[in-house]
Write a structure and sequence with these properties.
alpha+beta; 2 domains; four-stranded antiparallel sheet; elongated
Length: 269
């Protein structure tokens, strides 16, 4: 009988380590190999994928419960918010240099009106990220998705909007991170009746989180290798996430850095 992640927590496994994302506090927690091995059986995960270093981590489950990351209850099924599929160390991992627009991002300039529209949506994504972090970004995307009748199109149908957003980044006065770019693409496409998914993937060595966009069958505006390099921790929209949150009960992080890792959360490795 596995324990579940709390409602606001999503998780993934990467190369023998468990990584969890706290949607409300806008932070990540990376468990060490030993911590991951110790807690894996309690989460219904196959222990064969984790290093057997349990002796010094016998209290890890209670620490996760005390930190409001894991419930004290047990359930008959594994939590669907925990992605247990992990890329192999040979295939996994992005460069520590992080993400930037592709070298050919500005080869084709769309109409200026498209760039202007994309610039407004990019500003909206930046504003939401600055005020409410990841939660604010997903709220903004959720509103755009709910206000339009959307369909998944062919990959080439998204190209003009990707180009317009890339050019909008040239004129926006602040640097654009991957989360803001993907959120803005969701807004731009929604206005055109096109659906897209905002994906967040993670790795543990070193810790890195990256956001990108997909149709129902392909990655758009980013490397096609993202799912081979990173473990997916969130696919949005998802019925497993309820927005908006009750601000009276939860404290939100207002950091402008959308991805803030907190390895270990003070747990002993």
């Amino acid at each position: 009988m596995p324990h579940h992640l709390m409602p606001n927590i999503f998780g993934a496994c990467f190369s023998g380590q468990i990584i969890v994302l706290d949607m409300i506090r806008d932070r990540y927690v990376v468990l060490s190999h030993g911590q991951s091995a110790a807690v894996a059986p309690y989460l219904g995960l196959d222990s064969a994928f984790f290093e057997a270093k349990i002796a010094s981590n016998t209290g890890i489950l209670q620490k996760l419960v005390d930190a409001d990351l894991v419930t004290a209850q047990t359930f008959s099924v594994v939590d669907p918010k925990l992605n247990s599929v992990s890329p192999s160390p040979q295939m996994g991992g992005m460069s520590a240099n992080g993400w930037k627009l592709a070298d050919n991002a500005f080869e084709h300039r769309p109409a200026w009106r498209w760039i202007a529209r994309a610039l407004l949506d990019l500003r909206a994504a930046h504003k939401s990220a600055a005020k409410q972090g990841l939660t604010g970004v997903l709220k903004r995307c959720s509103q755009a998705i709910g206000q339009n009748e959307l369909r998944f199109g062919q990959t080439e149908e998204y190209t003009p909007f990707v180009n317009a957003l890339n050019w909008a980044c040239l004129f926006y006065p602040k640097p654009t991170k991957c989360l803001e770019w993907s959120a803005a693409l969701t807004l731009v496409c929604a206005r055109a009746g096109l659906a897209s998914k905002l994906i967040i993937g993670v790795q543990s060595f070193p810790f890195y989180a990256h956001a990108w966009s997909e149709t129902d069958h392909a990655i758009i505006g980013d490397s096609t290798l993202r799912r081979e390099e990173l473990s997916v921790i969130l696919e949005f929209p998802t019925p497993l996430l309820e927005l908006p949150y009750d601000r009276a009960r939860h404290r939100l992080s207002y950091s402008t850095g959308a991805f803030n890792a907190k390895p270990g959360l003070g747990f002993n490795a």
